[in-house]
Predict the 3D structure of the following.
Amino acid sequence: MANNYTFTRKTQYWIMSIVGIGILLLIVGYFINTPSRQELWTNILINNLFFLFIALFGGVFQALHKIAYSGWHTALQRIPEALTSFLPIAAALMFLLYFGMHDLYHWSHEGLHDPILEGKAAYLNIPFFFIRMAVYFLGWIGLTYLLRKNSLQQDTISDLRYYRRGKFLAAIFMVFFALSSSAMSWDWIMSIDGHWFSTLFGWFVFIGLFEIGIATIILMISFLKIKGYLEFINKEHIHDMGKYLFAFSIFWMYLWFSQYLLIWYSHIPEETAYFAPRLHDFTILFFTILVLNFVIPFFGLMTRNSKRNLKWLTVMAIVVLCGQWLNIYMLVIPGTIGKTAQIGVVEIGFVCLYLGGFLYVVFSSLAKAPLLSKNDPLLEESFHYET
Amino acid sequence: MYVSPIREPLIRGQKTYKKITQDIAAPIEGKPGKAWYAGIALTGSALLFGLAMIGYTIWEGIGTWGLNKTIGWGWGITNFVWWIGIGHAGTFISAILLLFRQKWRTSINRSAEAMTLFAVICAGLFPLIHMGRPLLAFFVFPYPNTRGLWVNFNSPLLWDVFAISTYFTVSLLFWYVGLIPDIGTIRDRVKSKLKKWIYGLLSFGWTGSAKHWQRHESISLILAGLAAPLVLSVHSIVSMDFATSVIPGWHTTIFPPYFVSGAIFSGFAMVLTLLIITRKVLNLENYITVGHVESMNKIIIATGSIVGIAYLTELFMAWYSGVEYEQYAFMNRATGPYWWAYWIMMSCNVISPQLLWFKKLRRSLVFTFILSIFINIGMWFERFVIIVTSLHRDYLPSSWEMYKPTIVEVGIFIGTLGLFFTLFLLFIRVFPVIAIAEVKGVLKSSGEKNPKSDKN
């Protein structure tokens, strides 16, 4: 079987259809019930975050395994590398927010006479907001680009130098990511509810990012396997991805619960103000998110066989992706649109539009390099390992 | 199973299966040296001093401690949290590292798990003594009783009772189940009839048959599965003792995961402190190699950096929150009367572990040993800072107080140190410090290869 993925016309056609459906839905949505500026920007922000998280996880996956001296993941290497190719576009989309700041972030308004927000003005102001955004993206794009370049160079020459440089880059990426991922979640998500604060918030968002990324990689494996690629990915790799999905859905619930319990228990109005509208105005969604992100993957992936069955794992990954999209929706919506928000044609249209674009970029990038990297000193371990 | 040649061997010195048994069983079969007697004399006297101080506390009451109306928790709870944290390395190694297929855990899991048990015993003492009337300690268990009273299920202190007793039970079972095949090995090697009988009893009639191994494997897997969530749950619940309150500096949502990370951090520091000495004294350098030390140092830098990020997040959020009391609590920690405790914590926990980014230092035993002591101190001060600096400035300035421990509290702490090290010294005389059976399991894939046999 070919070692290179060919981005066939047929696949391109399908992806374009997704984009087409997205545009169609948006047009239909426009005529049924014209969305307000605020609704448009909220949709852009939610999808910006969701697809940025997938792309970022490509970097996290590589870096984490490299610094942990992992061998099993080396055969999968190219998939997370391809995911990071979306980062420059994610950056461009994120900078678009410049035109939507006032519709999303209450703190960006002038003359608020709000002593709490005035106290935060040194951090929450438009110039600094975009300076930080530029710093995050420069770091992420730069480091993932170097990681990818290093991995491609390793394909051509067998030299331990690339292995060492890969580890070095991975360590820098992890440090940068650890700091920037928390700050990014405060900037782009937490500051929507300008008065509210929670120290755990950054880590909670990070675990969501991890789940989104793992689920996406599982779907990519599943797709490529159906197309007849990746014959070197065996049941053990699938099992490990399943374990990740299972373990981090528990970890996600753990952080969700820690944050909720501590705020509920202490019952300080400034803090409970965040959960009250989420629980009372979005009751069904509130519990649906917990079911999709925890209950279903927890029971669905508990047995060994369920984690080794790629078809079932694919179903679980789709459930988790839906759950995590709704989770981001829940983080953003109550602070922007409020209780009148609905998920309708426009929302689905935006998801289709983003999804199509994302898939196009990622698959084009995937087709550019062999699916199996060469010359990694740990590569051989990836073919013979037992769980 | 294939292992890349670039990986460092985990067992040095071209060992055979027989040699492994001999090396690891040697400390149990030989007579203890002078150093051991000197050690146990020292730790034993510390223990006796601690027992005397515990007796004094129980006889006279908690008034013998330095606590006052404002600062109701002092050294006692600091020590409790510190000891509980230290136990976490053992559970982490046996459960989480097992899930991540880290083979290097086989050389260190036995002693780390033993350490967990001893640390939890030390930790458990403190709430017990702190009750003032330890004879009524059974009141904390919920059962229908003639007093017509139930425990308060809403209290995180009660959750602690459940979390820690579960933790101790599972850790003990896990440790003991792992020991059974090794006890069988020791039973077959000891000469004296009495010892043979005792080890025979302890080994539950282990014969090493396929059936026994199969049962052993399946129970080990189940216990590892149960132990994995315990790594997270125990210290999360301990953190809730603080975080469910409305005290600035205590009430913060990051506490559960941050306490867990800090616990693993301090636990590995204690494992390093003990094992760097143990490997030398018991001649186990071929099993606990510099590579093992480096791996543990990597976990230290990872968890230490997570703790560092949590400190910074708390600082930032205190400012960002705009809550005056939050802001004051953190300013007061860094610049108030207990500034020295805060800066000991910061420099030991956040700044010094960053030196481990250098490979040379990660592989230096002397440096690692010194650093591990620093971290032990730093993590003790972390709990002290959290407890005392948050309490000593009450909402009412008229209630502001300072806290100084009395000799009784210091003595009890020294006593638990004595208890911990005494138990460890006894353990290395009685049971194999390294899991013989497990190390043998990785010999083929990760043992140092004989250059001659490779050529054939």
Chain A has one domain: 9-110+127-370. Residues 9-110+127-370 of chain A form one domain. The first helix of chain A runs from residue 9 to 32.
